[in-house]
Amino acid sequence: MFVPCGSGGSASADFRGFTLLMPAVSVGNVGQLAIDLVISTLGMTKVGYFYTDCLVPMVGNNPYATAEDNSMELSINAEVYSLPPKKLVVLQIRSPFIKKKSRPFCEMLLSWVQSSQCARVVVLSSSHAYQRDDEQLLGTPLRYLLTPDLEQTVGGLLQELKWKEMEKVVAYLGIDDTEKVLHIPGGGITKLLFTESCSRGIQMAVLLKFCSEGDNIPDAFVLVNYLNEWLQLIKSNVNVSSQWKIPSSWRLLFGSGLPPTLF
What we know:
Layout: E1 2-4, E2 19-23, H1 30-42, E3 45-50, E4 59-61, E5 74-76, E6 78-83, E7 88-93, H2 102-116, E8 120-128, E9 142-146, H3 148-160, E10 169-172, E11 176-181, H4 190-200, E12 204-211, H5 217-231
Parallel strand pairs: 2-7, 2-8, 8-12
Antiparallel strand pairs: 1-3, 3-6, 4-5, 6-7, 9-12, 10-11
Helix pairs in contact: 1-5, 2-4
């Protein structure tokens, strides 16, 4: 459940009409890295955390520290940030799911979305590049999905942007090529969140990138730029990537590098 924090208390937890932006814990952690860029760049304020036994417990220093005095603030596995002027609320997830706990988490999360009256949910995710079928190998590595309730309001806009919808794949290759299903390998809870939102009438969009494990920072920039084409979180221009602020926690994301004495 959502637990507010800070001096604002429950007043800071009014998300009626807000867009909820969140990652799926998926291949390369691309969605989580993209969320880091959004929170850091927009200077979003932490307004609470998501209390759950479904995620692996963890604690660490403030990943978005800007000075020494706030660098020792603690962060946990699921925190909520808000930016009222843009009607934006962000849930950042920092640890994987405990086995068999992903469905209870999705149910609890979507119940919170409905009770808090968020206008829509945008999930940033990723999928294994090596498991694409022939059709998915063509064109951009970016895809989107819209629930029927959101399709009515933004479907035309995304088509104008010439975005490519996530293709369904053959369910039983070589046996029955007519039956196709939604398949997001490496996408974590992405498919579950999407299908549950469809059945609950929740307006949800999934934006994802095909990628492989490794240094996925470039993938995160591609995905967050993709998001920005639609939501216009920052001003778009030919050099939009340079406008995203890299959080302090990324400094040692892939280690501190090799000692100069080795060269």
